[in-house]
Design a protein that fits this description.
This protein is mainly alpha-helical and 189 residues long. It contains eight helices and four strands, in the order ββαααααααββα. The strands form two sheets. A two-stranded antiparallel ribbon has the order 1-2. A two-stranded antiparallel ribbon has the order 3-4. A hairpin with a 2-residue loop joins strand 1 (2-6) and strand 2 (9-13).
Length: 189
């Protein structure tokens, strides 16, 4: 019900449907023309109310676990983190960081991984073959935890640090496959 004002008195009347359609069309056009302004305002609101929004999302997820899981499943179908054709290193770092968060913390970046590989001459520290040689053998250079993730005590922080990472070859007959979950530092041993 919309309230209409006529000569100082207030009357209530239903506006015809066509007026609602005009209003909806006007609103769509306004949002389209002022999209940048609306985007900035939304971002400012989200930044100013970040804690409230996070608390609301968390409460909703706890109250509606099935809906939250379904929404996450649909999002993952559209945004699969494991498929980064432009930068597979980013996907690898993401997977390691996620697993480390689940187990106990620590992190390293793709840039740190690239630096470590460069410092070691882009070689596997187990067999000392270069990435080019490994590619010919059908293997690839992957980050490996010196102290295995499988052996970490729950809640022990910092073991997913770049200082606990070594480059090993992975694939048929690769050093990472042979090492499995043993704690072995190829640079020291």
């Amino acid at each position: 019900m919309l309230k209409l004002y006529f000569k100082g008195s207030m009357k209530t009347a239903d506006k015809p449907t066509r007026d609602k359609q005009k209003k909806a069309a006007y609103d769509r056009a306004y949002r389209k023309v002022h999209a940048d302004r609306r985007r900035v305002a939304k971002r400012a609101y989200r930044e100013a109310h970040a804690e409230e929004i996070a608390a609301h999302k968390s409460a909703y997820a706890k109250a509606h676990p099935e809906k939250s899981r379904e929404r996450l499943r649909r999002w993952n179908e559209v945004h699969p983190y494991s498929e980064h054709p432009d930068n597979p290193e980013t996907a690898r770092v993401y997977r390691h960081k996620r697993r480390a968060r689940e187990i106990g913390g620590g992190s390293w970046t793709a840039a740190e991984w690239q630096t470590l590989k460069q410092q070691l001459g882009y070689r596997c520290v187990g067999c000392w073959k270069t990435e080019a040689e490994l590619k010919l053998l059908g293997r690839k250079l992957v980050p490996d935890h010196i102290v295995s993730v499988a052996k970490w005590p729950k809640g022990q922080p910092g073991l997913n640090d770049i200082t606990n990472i070594q480059p090993l070859c992975h694939g048929k007959g690769g050093c990472n496959n042979k090492k499995h979950d043993k704690c072995k530092d190829f640079l020291i041993s």
